[in-house]
């Protein structure tokens, strides 16, 4: 990036002066650990629930605490850890999470044997917090890919090759994003444009699906590269075994419906933190389990909650001062509402086809093909909403990688001319 532009982008008159504080965000992580490593004294769940909620409210009062995107991003996912921690604290009852969560290879109710604030309990607490899918625990969520039985050396060879491929793809997509979204068509300078008016429509309509694909595919390869790197380091130093690191995603072939895309193919990281609360809501409303009312109450609750937190957490990131809160959040929330609506619609079509028209439920080749087209269409049509929200705040204007293999090659691609 042009050094003058890079300096200008960090000026307060572009992003606005940060007025929030990082303190509450950091304490929110620390007190979740403290809640788990402490003894199960009377009223523990109420005390720490109150502290965590107070810290969360304080952190939300003014989310903009830095103009450093790299520093802000780790706190955008804090809500998912908080939901999971509150679930474990509140819903575990008087017995506490120690009586309900353990690693089978460490023994049933292992944490009951650990002294408070000891190294063993700290390790248990940290892994309970970070391992949101519950891999290797008694509460592992559904549809986590199976970790193949393999040796340490074979695992490392496979993952190093996977890291190489995912890095190249993520690097290519980040550079394409910079080229397509953030390079001024007239000047050729990166960042030399008002992102409030950024568009995904181009004079050459062939660029439209390319731009959407670049935005949609980038998180997949970036997450895969990050997860693969962590898995390599963990197994290499003996902190974990290959069985602790199943693949991040299931095969794309499982995504023949929007429901299966999110419920089977995608990473399942926030699944338990949301699904447990949705089940609690259903029970509190005295809705019978296993009914359509229960199913769709949980479906819509899950996507609405996820949409709310994904959109509001985006406000932690720095944004140009002329981009409104609505422009930064609305599209992200709408994306999640569309997913719930699409699942509801496809369930109705499947019910109509198999129950009323009596056309059978077996999955044939043409049904799978139709399913892939349906899922692709829904995602491509809906992803433009969060894409514009993220692009207006200049997310991705710089690659997170310290080096780039693809940068000079991507520069050979002409900058697409926007439609306006």
UniProtKB/TrEMBL annotation:
Query: GO molecular function of the protein, one example?
Result: O-acyltransferase activity
Question: What are the TM regions of this chain, as residue ranges?
Answer: 20-37, 163-182, 210-239, 299-317, 329-349, 370-391
UniProt-listed InterPro entries: Wax_synthase, Wax_synthase_dom
State the Gene Ontology BP annotations: lipid metabolic process
Protein location: Membrane
- Keywords in alphabetical order: Membrane, Transferase, Transmembrane, Transmembrane helix
The UniProt entry's GO CC annotations, sorted and at most eight, read: membrane
- Domain named Wax synthase: residues: 245-337
The membrane topology noted for this protein in its Swiss-Prot or TrEMBL record is:
Multi-pass membrane protein
Main subcellular location: membrane
Give the family per the record: Belongs to the wax synthase family.
Instruction: From the Swiss-Prot or TrEMBL record, give the protein name.
Output: Wax synthase domain-containing protein
């Amino acid at each position: 990036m042009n050094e003058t532009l890079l300096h200008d982008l960090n000026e307060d008159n572009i992003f606005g002066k940060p007025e929030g504080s990082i303190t509450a965000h950091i304490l929110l992580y620390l007190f979740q650990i403290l809640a788990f490593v402490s003894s199960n004294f009377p009223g523990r769940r109420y005390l720490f629930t109150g502290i965590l909620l107070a810290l969360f409210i304080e952190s939300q009062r003014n989310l903009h605490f830095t103009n450093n995107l790299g520093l802000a991003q780790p706190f955008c996912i804090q809500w998912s850890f908080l939901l999971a921690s509150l679930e474990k604290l509140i819903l575990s009852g008087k017995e506490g999470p120690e009586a309900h969560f353990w690693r089978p290879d460490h023994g049933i109710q292992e944490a009951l044997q650990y002294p408070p604030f000891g190294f063993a309990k700290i390790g248990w607490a940290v892994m309970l917090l970070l391992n949101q899918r519950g891999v290797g625990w008694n509460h592992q969520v559904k549809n986590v890919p199976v970790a193949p039985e393999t040796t340490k050396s074979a695992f490392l060879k496979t993952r190093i090759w996977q890291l190489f491929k995912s890095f190249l793809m993520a690097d290519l997509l980040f550079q394409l994003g910079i080229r397509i979204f953030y390079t001024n068509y007239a000047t050729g300078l990166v960042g030399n444009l008002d992102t409030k008016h950024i568009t995904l429509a181009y004079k050459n309509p062939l660029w439209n699906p390319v731009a959407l694909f670049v935005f949609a595919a980038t998180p997949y390869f970036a997450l895969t590269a990050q997860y693969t790197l962590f898995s390599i380091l963990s197994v290499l130093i003996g902190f974990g075994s290959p069985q602790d690191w199943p693949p991040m995603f299931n095969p794309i072939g499982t995504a023949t419906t929007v429901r299966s895309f999110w419920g089977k193919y995608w990473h399942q990281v926030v699944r338990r933190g949301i699904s447990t609360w949705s089940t609690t809501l259903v029970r509190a409303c005295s809705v019978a389990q296993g009914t359509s009312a229960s199913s769709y109450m949980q479906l819509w609750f899950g996507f609405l909650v996820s949409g709310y937190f994904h959109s509001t957490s985006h406000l932690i990131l720095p944004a140009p001062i002329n981009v409104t809160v609505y422009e930064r959040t609305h599209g992200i929330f709408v994306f999640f509402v569309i997913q719930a609506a699409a699942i509801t619609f496809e369930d109705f079509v499947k019910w109509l086809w198999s129950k009323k028209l009596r056309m059978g439920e077996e999955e044939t080749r043409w049904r799978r093909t139709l399913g892939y087209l349906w899922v692709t269409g829904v995602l491509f049509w809906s992803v433009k909403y969060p894409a514009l929200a993220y692009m207006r705040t200049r997310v991705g204007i710089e690659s997170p990688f310290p080096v780039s293999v693809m940068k000079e090659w991507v520069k050979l691609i002409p900058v697409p001319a926007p439609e306006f």
